[in-house]
Amino acid sequence: MVKNTGAPARPAAGRPLIQPRPVRVVESEDGPSKIFLKQTPAPVESVEDTWRLDDEWWRERPISRRYFECVLEEGQRLTVFKDLFTGRWYRQAG
Length: 94
Fold this sequence. Notes:
Elements: E1 21-22, E2 25-28, E3 31-37, E4 40-55, E5 63-72, E6 77-83, E7 89-91
Antiparallel strand pairs: 1-7, 2-3, 3-4, 4-5, 5-6, 6-7
């Protein structure tokens, strides 16, 4: 058993709780057309929502992303985003 020190509980300072994971995406002009899950391409049936996030413009590495909420052919819902500075795609965890 761990001894109670009496100190208040606190999360790790400055550490994000959920990290996005890199993902391979085949793009069309409307957004993702295929998303690779475990090396297998999953066709995107529809893009249900899209939005842009521009934040932390004052920092050395600002955030600029285009998000896509997708429904894959087998019915799975998935949110992915494209980093507009690097061109890389990520799967939003959670």
